[in-house]
Amino acid sequence: MSNFKYIKNKYEISKMRIAGKIAAQVLEMIEYYIRPGISTNQLNNLCHDYIVNKHRATCATLNYYGFPKSICVSINEVVCHGIPNDKEKLKNGDILNIDVAIIKDGFYSDTSKMFIVGKASNISKKLCNIAKQSLYLAIKMVKPGINLNKLGKVIQKFVESNNFSVVRDYCGHGIGKNFHEPPQVLHYDNNDCNDILQPGMIFTIEPMINVGGHDVYVTHDGWTVKTKDNSLSAQYEHTLLVTNSGCEVLTLRSDDNIPKIINHSILI
Ligand code: MF3
Ligand code: CO
Ligand code: CO
Q1: How far apart, in whole angstroms, are the C-alpha atoms of residue 152 and residue 60?
Q2: From CA 128, how far away is CA 124, in angstroms rounded?
């Protein structure tokens, strides 16, 4: 078995660091604007201008297989791929995911986080927190030699022990000169995803977690994914580099509660 095709060289890694930093900064920038009354299209336009004019980068979702906007905004029971629009305005108590993917110098990065509008319910806050902690748990396992399927196992076990469910229909992915590359990173226990991690691999982990069941459907716009039972859903996503001793979170933000570089080797 060879994972050679997934391994990035030093040049590619240096470019991925730059791309990762930009996507992280977009999510830091937009936090200030999250308040009742702002439309999801206004959030889209703020992110678009910042990516294009401030960073001279490209919005990866814009025109991606026909996706019409520069970010995805997914509110409450929307699981992922929500399309920003003028009609949809944030309300007190909403939870929303903003998913940002950009291209800089030909290299992609991809990251998302949850925002809470005003005062949210306890279940909303718990859902967002469990989604974030499930991502962190998986990130802390990433190091050379471990099997990719361990990540899904740990995420599913943690999420289900908190009585939430893990969406099965969407997964994390390798990323580099392409938005979506092998390997697939499943967020639940499975035997299909059997790659052994090696230094130089770069991929996303992006668990989608529901209050109710794991079933989802795509709505009539062809993009927006919702929970079948209309329950709330939350997602966090980071782009990660496997290092010699652990991993580096390429899309780390100032509000993250994990180190940028996670080193598992104990040097005496
Ligand atoms: N950013 C998403 C991901 O995490 C992909 C969005 S594709 C779009 O892989 F077309 F819906 F924008
Ligand atoms: Co992704
Ligand atoms: Co994404």
Answers
A1: 26
A2: 6
225-227 and 78-80 beta bridge pairing: antiparallel
Instruction: Dump pLDDT digits (tens) for 99-132.
Output: 999 999 999 999 999 999 999 999 999 999 999 9
> pLDDT tens for residues 234-247?
999 999 999 999 99
Closest listed ligand to the CA of 112:
3
Cβ burial of 112 (10 Å; 0-12, 13-18, 19+) is: buried
Which of 74, 78, 80 should be mutated for ligand 1, with most atoms under 8 A from CB?
A: 80
- pTM given for the model: 0.97
Pocket test for ligand 1, best of 51, 74, 81, 251 (most atoms within 8 A of CB): 81
At residue 25, what are phi and psi to the nearest 5 degrees?
-65, -30
Atom index in ligand 1 nearest the CA of residue 206 equals: 4
